[in-house]
Amino acid sequence: MKKAKNTPYRSAGSNVLWSFRGMLRDAPLSFWLMALGVPVAVFLAWAEIRLPALVVAEVAGRQTLSHACLAVGILLALMALAAAAQKALRGVSDVYLTRYRYQRGVELRHKSMRCFYQTYERKQTRDLYSRAILSTWKWGGKMPISDMPRESLELVKSILCYSLFGTMISFASPWLVLLLTAAPAVNWLCARAYRKYEYATRGERTDIDRRLHYVAERGADFSAAKDIRIYGMAGWLKEVYRGLCRQDLRWERRLSMRQLLSKLADLGIILLRDGAAYGVLIAMFLREELTVDQFVLYFGAISSFAVYVGNIMNAWNEMHTASLKVCDYREYMDMPDQEGPGAARLEEHLGRAPEITFDRVCFRYDGAEHDALHELSFTMHAGERLALVGMNGAGKTTLVKLLCGLYLPTSGEIRINGVPLADFKRAELYRLFSPVFQDIKTAFFSLYETVTGQLGGKADEARAEDCLRRAGLGNKLDSLPEGIHTKLDKQVNKGGIELSGGEAQKLMMARALYKDAPMLVLDEPTAALDPIAENEIYLQYQEMTQGKTSLFISHRLASTQFCDRILFLAGGQIAAQGTHAQLLAQGGEYARLYEMQSCWYRDDYNGNYSEGGEEI
Questions:
Q1: Distance between CA atoms of 146 and 329, rounded to whole angstroms?
Q2: CA atoms of 442 and 508, how far apart (whole Å)
Q3: pLDDT in tens, 310-366
Q4: From residue 37, how far is each of 67, 94, 141, 153 by CA, in Å?
């Protein structure tokens, strides 16, 4: 994805058509009600200047009272009906327009959840999402995603009124039409300059807003409350927040000053324009070129004409301002999903333990100078229990993300049973894996829903409970009044529960057991468990991996002894491989690290570890 640029992603016209297509698809009644409101509004605008001129004409023409009342009454009745219709149309259309805005928000969040992980992980993508989501929010009465069609029709209405009143004024003097039309060009140029500046600086402002929001959330995060208090972090967070607020304030000041200059220019032009127009009209009346009722009519027409020239400019500016936000929305929605061609059928590989081959695989992160994984080649044999160990930064997590299809290799190929991984549809490929990642996030669903991935009673409840008990949550289930249907997250659910780190890890283990995919991936599955629970997982590991290919990742080298083979990763490459006993016999880096870890559990340890006479 390209960096933010000064040229909008789509033109305003393109965004107008896109908005109308979306409305006709998701909220067609809103579109037709808004469109119907345009002729009603034009009629009201005409009637408002026609009414005083009609009254003057009736009086000046010495018409009878009944004639005047009838003429004026009919017009007033039509105006009342039109005003009532206008309010009704606007009220009902706004309700359906909310549905349109809601649907756009749903699509945006759905895009984020199915967006290719490697793309979503990039900062540019998250910044674009931060800008895109603003298009669906309401700030200061503005809601860009729904303002786009509304302001477009407002522009149409203002142009029709401009044409109507311009035609009327031209009968008095064509020069007045030219004067009233040409003057606002200066206002348009000022507003256009402001919009361009606002759009060109959106990237830096979005970055500051995102960081400001992040720091504010961390300061109020309950999970960090202990650290903030004990380590005296409140003052530090406060200073960071203040610094970001100062940066945000500087940008707000710059935008406000540029907007103020634009408004001052607008005010000056209005005074010159209206003053000249009224002067011409008064001069014509004094020369008896106009009757009293014509003067009243043209005076009202000039006032309304000037208003609608301003409305055209305002609607144009508002439409373009909304369009810039819609551009961010559409750019985010248009990001490629990297779905895969679907040339390979996953069903042929789900019924058996897969063989997975990494063939000279390289991966480099965006902006990095070196590969995180370089020329990596190995094969996970069908049904094999493979352990992956190494120091932090060795590339273990990167390898797992490549294996699960969350990343694409920079070069090289990954094959499943001889079929390139890239040939599978990504959404189908995920069915092949039951991973338990190190970073655990639980949501606000019930234990049953979390394990099964299903809402309601569509899944096998007995099997879900069995998986929870096998994962070590049996005692927890027995202590809960609602058992497996207990909801998580107290902030969302009344009576919800909060799981400890170890319990959350067991819950994720139960979810992987329930999915029962042919490839099991355990990334530090016992990191948050106590020794007893950890031992239970090790004892169950053989049963869990029966008929599956499995990858076990751990920093604790002693925990890999039950695996068939161990890969020791260092510097993005395989430094050594073999069984636990073989690697110890080789006496390399694996053996050194194992000795460093195991020495803490030996009775003869004296506090120093040495190798080659040097203290480690």
A1: 12
A2: 9
A3: 788 788 888 988 998 899 999 999 988 767 677 788 888 888 899 999 999 999 998
A4: 31, 12, 21, 9
- Three-state SS at 564: coil
More confident residue, 21 or 182: 21
Backbone Cα Rg of the chain: 35
Q: How far is CA 456 from CA 310, 453, 460, 511, 592, in A?
A: 55, 10, 11, 16, 52
pLDDT tens sequence across 568-588? 998 899 999 999 889 989 888
Q: What pLDDT was estimated at residue 269?
A: 66
For 55, half-sphere exposure in the C-beta direction (CA atoms, 13 angstrom radius) is: 8
Q: How far apart are CA 382 and CA 361, in angstroms?
A: 20
Note whether 557 and 597 are within 8 A (CB): yes
Round to whole Å and give the CA distance between 476 and 569: 37
Query: Which is higher by pLDDT, 97 or 458?
Result: 97
Rounded to whole angstroms, the Cα distance separating 152 from 15 reads 10
Please report the DSSP string for 310-365 in residue order. HHHHHHHHHHHHHHHHHHHHHHHHTS--------S-THHHHTSPPPEEEEEEEE--
DSSP reduced 3-state for 396: helix
CA distance 443 to 441: 7
Does residue 1 carry a pLDDT above 50?
Answer: no
The two tokens of residue 305 are 């004409």
Residue found under tokens 């049904």: 383
The candidate with the shortest Cα–Cα distance to 308, out of 85, 49, 56, is 49
* Residue 586 identity: Q
Dihedral sign computed on CA atoms, order 98, 99, 104, 110 = positive
Q: Are 151 and 318 in contact (CB under 8 A)?
A: yes
Question: What is the distance between the alpha carbons of residues 408 and 267, in angstroms, rounded to a whole number?
Answer: 57
Give me the chain's average pLDDT, please: 82
